[in-house]
Amino acid sequence: MPDPIRYRLALRTEVVGGWRFDLTAIEDFEAAVSELAEAIGRGADARWFEDLCPMFGVIWPSARALAERVTTLPLRGNRVLELGCGLALPSLVAARAGARVVATDQHPHTWTFLEQNLQRNRLTLDYRSFDWAGDLPDGVEERAFDVVMASDVLYAPAMAELVAASFDRFLAPDGEGLLADPGRPWLQDFSEAARVRGLRVDLDTEGDTWLLSVRR
User: Fold this and answer.
1) Are the C-beta atoms of residues 181 and 152 closer than 8 Å to each other?
2) Which range (86-95, 107-116, 131-140, 153-162) has the least confidence?
3) How many angstroms separate the CA atoms of 210 and 127, rounded?
4) What is the largest CA-CA distance in the chain?
5) Which of 24, 88, 127, 166 is the most buried (most CB within 10 A)?
6) 119-164 pLDDT, tens per residue?
7) Where in the chain is the domain with CATH 3.40.50.150?
8) Residue among 58, 56, 55, 53 at smallest CA distance from 14
């Protein structure tokens, strides 16, 4: 494995639903990618780059759109699961709205950022390192969540089926899944995979972002 990456950081302020969130984030994504490539070195296992790519450390437009949609939901006391949370802005919004939140990601540096941002914004939630196709971690049960949400996770063809399977796996019978996407090529594949599993998919937009609502 490469030496630990020292990201150049910045403090970002996001205002969602009238709430202010101050978040430590990666200052320059492209620079962070270049530094990672240099740290890994030529000829190294390509899986290292895939596993360590610092996409988690940026507040992407789809996460902002999802966070805005979260403010419209009656969340107090409900169970919420975010898949591939990264900086977890939607989860932070849900936590502030009174939900019981479990945020998940598999990047090894996600929790370092999230822990700091939770403390800065005086919020609490549960975090689990989780490979969606792997075994369930403690606190993540099947068909137990009132809301399952993810943003900008359809970054490869195989993700369409995996994300649809995850929504089916974790949504409670009366729950709602929310997927925010910038319009990637595999959005229709996700919709078809969800419908094959008996899920109903409704399409909406939030600015330039596609927002899919998924129900049983």
Assistant:
1) yes
2) 131-140
3) 26
4) 50
5) 88
6) 999 999 999 999 887 889 999 999 999 999 999 999 999 999 999 9
7) 56-215
8) 58
